[in-house]
Amino acid sequence: MVIKIKSIIFVLIFIFLVSPCSFARDVLSKDDNNAIRKLSRGFANVITAPIQLFETFKEINDNDGPIAAITYGPILGLVNGIDRLGVGLGEIFTFACPGPKKDYKPVLDNPEFFNQDFKFKNNMNMNKDTI
Fold first, then answer.
1. Phi and psi at residue 33, to the nearest 5°
2. C-alpha torsion 29→34→39→42, nearest 10
3. I need a labelling partner for 85 at 20 to 30 A (CA). Which of 7, 54, 69, 78 fits?
């Protein structure tokens, strides 16, 4: 009985010592889609999920007008926000495991991060003569 318990403990210790080595290979890979990026994507999606409601409302207002934004903008924004929250939580809890397609590629890929296409605009028209 004691030998059986010792062997089980030995196997568990071996698993815990070997698995971080294989995990580190995926975390430290030079590929853009690795476990650390998946974890950061998850946190970013959870943090920005509430903002998705207002961003979707704004996008619909810009593309389809104010009536469309008032009627289905909040509903679509809420659905998109819940979607981003769920995907973010899923990526946080499963960041160590590649998936769902045996890799670390994002589930939400359009865009991968919220407001990914946002660029700061420099509104100051300065040239070398004015400095």
1. -100, 90
2. 160
3. 69
Query: Distance (Å, rounded) from C-alpha 46 to C-alpha 34?
Result: 19
Does residue 9 sit within a domain? yes
> Do both 2 and 36 map to the same domain?
no
Same domain, 10 and 39: no
- pTM value surpassing 0.70: no
Q: Which is nearest to 44 in space by CA: 97, 96, 94, 87?
A: 87
**CA dist list (Å): 19 to 14, 16, 44, 103, 104:** 8, 6, 27, 18, 18
Q: Tokens 């890979």 sit at which residue?
A: 29
Is residue 98 one of the residues assigned to a domain?
yes
Q: Are 113 and 44 in contact (CB under 8 A)?
A: yes
pLDDT digits (tens, 9 = 90+) for 1-42: 667 777 777 666 666 555 554 554 555 555 567 888 888 889
Q: Give the span between the Cα atoms of 48 and 97, in whole angstroms.
A: 23
